[in-house]
Amino acid sequence: MTGPVRLAFAAFFFFYFAYIGLMSPYASLYFASRDFGAIEIAALMSMFQITRIMGPFAWGWLADMRRDRLGIMRITSVMACIIFSGIFYLESYLPLLIWMFLLNTVISSLMPLGEAATVHALYKNNDFDRRYGRLRLWGSIGFIAMVLGAGAWFEKFGIESFPWFGVVALLIMTVLTTTLREPPIDAVQHASVKFTHVLKNPHVQWFLSANFWMIFGHAALYVFYSLYLDRLGYSKGEIGLFWMLGVLSEVIFFYFQSYFFARFTTKNILLAAYLIAGLRFALMAYLPELWILILAQIMHAATFGAHHSASIKMLQTWFKGPLQARGQALYTTVSYGIGGTVGGLFAGWVWEYLAPHHVFGLAAVSSLLGYWCMRKITHTDS
Predict the structure, then answer these.
(1) Domains in the chain: ranges and CATH
(2) Per-residue pLDDT tens for 8-31?
């Protein structure tokens, strides 16, 4: 992968996650400013996870069949720009709900296909361990930049300008997709049969199960962490600093990931990530002192950064060439789609009917279940 190609992928990650850094924290505030109730907002925001259940795999299947990941990304990014612009014309709740479903179905294609194209290009040059993290960290930086920049703007000028931030981020990202390049994807006969065969591999099933439990647990973090800190008495500014500390920790891991991959097997990195996740969530639940919460956020380097990079690498053990996009999409569907959705629902029930701190106790248990599943994998190429 040449320097200009690496720069293009880094810029794509930056603006894709800048868009996520706009939608995740601020979309609910924007919908609230339009006088929608809590249940209506919850349904609107649930489209992020629901569309990840089928969307990524459908796009991945199409990209593998056409052997043209970047072409699909360019089409769906244009579609995302067109659909997002509809926010300027929609007033009532039902049209906005349909809008969120369509928008996130289209957007759900970009990260799995972008990751698959990046990994394919890096593996062609035997450069994954050294380069992947340093490309992917720009996504984390983009997320931080949008959270801080848009937050400061909304604080001063109001949330009404929210749609313009989304339009600009998507337009820039769409332009950047035209600059992405990857090596040709080799045609392999009977690829669809091979994909079905791969799914029957028990190691693949244990791998996907482990990732389901990991993101099941992290749903508690993504949905309830800010509310939890608020209940503990932290201000909104302090809550923002906690979030930023977690993202900065993952950036540092991504930058230095080659050090870990050179010294430890992929499986051992994942096993450590699951154990650290169990410890992290248990500490957050039952010892929520300031220094403990700071330590827990630093652990995000392992529970997200190390886990994500090692999972992407282990995927290549089974899903290569024309199976790559579907493998990446399946990983997204099982973990972030199904795991994130089910985990969020369970966490909500625990928050409502048991106690807020038990939400993170549940996350600790699910992380250890993921560790148990990962232990079942006895053979990989990594």
Answers:
(1) 1-184 (1.20.1250.20), 192-382 (1.20.1250.20)
(2) 999 999 999 999 988 877 887 788
Structural contact between residues 47 and 100, judged by C-beta atoms closer than 8 angstroms: yes
Per-residue pLDDT tens for 152-166?
Answer: 888 788 889 999 999
Give the up-direction half-sphere exposure of residue 172: CA atoms within 13 A in the CB hemisphere: 17
> Mapping DSSP to helix (H, G, I), strand (E, B) and coil, where does residue 305 land?
helix
Summarize pLDDT for 317-333 with one digit per residue, the tens.
888 767 777 787 888 88
CA distances (Å), origin 359, targets 39, 238, 247, 314: 20, 21, 21, 29
pLDDT in tens, 203-248: 999 999 999 999 999 988 887 887 788 889 887 678 778 888 998 9
24, exposed or middle or buried, with CB in 10 Å at 0-12, 13-18, 19+?
middle
Please name the helix (run of DSSP H) or strand (run of DSSP E) that holds residue 260, with its range, or none: helix 236-263
